[in-house]
């Protein structure tokens, strides 16, 4: 979706936490958009872009609680929303049509207005996968939507909690920009990161494809 800028604390000896990144341009694609979801009836969603497109709505609209309902029920409901939105809404990205697809649905606790208290969500994406975190691109898109709706201002930091693991990210809009015809923002997302492994890559001179290849 484009380059992001990452920031890692360094004390001269090793890296630390929190780490953070500045997003690609993020924007609201649609707000308060009504969609018919089989098995659930008509619901109202927002669609935001934060590196990929997501549909957002409160779990309450689907008769669920994002903090206490079974994950399987949340996944099933979110997947139904994703499929319904895909059939009824076509995203557009001003810079690349390769990005113009709905990646998933994020169910929230509905607490979109600015608050010092965390707001909880669950991201169901791709083939009914569930993110263990509040989701970097999801937090980015959610901040963009909240900024678009006037619910937060630049540099107001919000905390986002994953309903599955309880892990926390913070997010804030740090710069207002344009992305095609959209009023957009650059969002800073911050969280904890830990080493999970290292890898060494070796290139041998005899490898005829060591520099890669192109298809014509």
UniProtKB/TrEMBL annotation:
The keyword Lyase applies. GO terms for molecular function: trans-L-3-hydroxyproline dehydratase activity. It is an enzyme of class 4 (lyase). It catalyses: trans-3-hydroxy-L-proline = 1-pyrroline-2-carboxylate + H2O. Gene3D superfamilies: Diaminopimelate Epimerase, Chain A, domain 1. Keywords: Lyase. Its EC number is 4.2.1.77. Homodimer. Belongs to the proline racemase family. This is trans-L-3-hydroxyproline dehydratase. It comes from Casuarius casuarius. The gene is L3hypdh.
């Amino acid at each position: 979706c484009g380059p992001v800028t990452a920031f890692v604390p360094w004390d001269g000896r090793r890296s630390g936490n929190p780490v953070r990144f500045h997003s690609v341009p993020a924007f609201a694609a649609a707000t308060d958009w009504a969609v018919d979801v089989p098995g659930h009836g008509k619901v109202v969603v927002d669609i935001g872009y934060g590196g990929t497109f997501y549909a957002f709505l409160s779990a309450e609209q689907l008769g669920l609680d994002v903090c206490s309902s079974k994950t399987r029920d949340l996944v099933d409901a979110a997947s139904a929303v994703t499929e319904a939105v895909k059939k009824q809404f076509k995203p557009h990205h001003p810079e690349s049509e390769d990005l113009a697809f709905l990646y998933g649905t994020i169910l929230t606790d509905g607490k979109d207005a600015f608050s010092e208290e965390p707001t909880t969500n669950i991201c169901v994406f791709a083939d009914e996968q569930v993110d263990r975190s509040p989701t970097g691109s999801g937090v980015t898109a959610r901040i963009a939507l909240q900024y678009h709706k006037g619910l937060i201002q630049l540099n107001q930091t919000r905390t986002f909690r994953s309903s599955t693991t309880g892990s926390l990210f913070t997010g804030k809009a740090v710069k207002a920009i344009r992305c095609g015809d959209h009023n957009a923002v650059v969002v800073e997302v911050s969280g904890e990161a830990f080493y999970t492994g290292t890898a060494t890559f070796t290139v041998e001179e005899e490898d005829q494809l060591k520099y890669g290849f192109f298809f014509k």
